[in-house]
Amino acid sequence: MPEHLKLYEAVMLLALCEEKGTMNGMYVEYATAGAIAAELLMLGRIKTDENNKNKVAVLDDSPTSDALLDEALTMIAEAKRPRKLKDWVQKLGGIKNLKHKVAQALADDGIVSHEKEKVLWLFERQVYPEVNPKPEQELRQSMRDAVLSDSEDIEPKIAIAVALANSAKLLPQVFSKQELKDRKQRIKQLENGELVSKAAKEAVQAIEAAVMVAVIMPAITAATTPSSGSC
């Protein structure tokens, strides 16, 4: 996984169709919010407080040098009452224009371009076609290496990326149906944090649990909505 790539950018790269620049996947905003929370956990800015019903506590609210992480950290720090991680994932998923903010971050890094196109000659939508495929290629290869191998030395960010992508139904963008079937147990190990260090395990498990709850709840109310296809 490219060192400079944030987890929330990794989720968006998988969600964006390379040529069209449109967004794919289901409830990507919640996977994105989970990725933001994961970054804050890994940076030691927040933690889940076992002494307070596993609600999120802020350890350091100083600027992170990342606008989106700072926005999320400020929301958590200034909240009138503490919330559990799954509640914060849902709340962060509601940040105005969240998906477009993440896509714009990728555009600022020169990975995608930001364009506007007409739909039915009447409506305008924003699209983000890929212009530098290398970061996504490296991300996909890292994910494939983690899932298709039996190595026990897995980079924490990759394990989290696999868990987040799975929650947003984005793994079919990276693996074939047969690969997903054959490596189902391996994916579950990555989601459970079995293959990462103790320090990273909390982030892997907490984010997967939070994202799955955040995805399942709206999915129940939108059961008639057809799932997005692959690019």
What does this structure look like?
This protein has 231 residues and is mainly alpha-helical. Strand 1 and strand 2 form a beta hairpin. About 2% of the residues have low confidence. It is globular, with a radius of gyration of 17 Å. The protein has a two-stranded antiparallel sheet.
Strand content: 5-15%
Order of helices and strands: HHEEHHHEEHHHHH
Structural class: mainly alpha
**Mean pLDDT over the residues:** 88
Tell me the Rg in angstroms.
Answer: 17 Å
Note the gap between the termini: 21 Å
Report a brief summary of the structure.
This protein is mainly alpha-helical and 231 residues long. The protein is 52% helix and 8% strand.
Topology:
Blueprint: H1 7-15, H2 28-42, E1 46-49, E2 55-58, H3 67-77, H4 85-92, H5 98-108, E3 115-119, E4 123-127, H6 134-148, H7 156-167, H8 177-182, H9 184-192, H10 198-221
Antiparallel strand pairs: 1-2, 3-4
Helix pairs in contact: 1-2, 1-5, 1-7, 2-3, 2-4, 2-7, 2-10, 4-10, 6-7, 7-9, 7-10
Keyphrases for this structure?
mainly alpha; two-stranded antiparallel sheet; globular
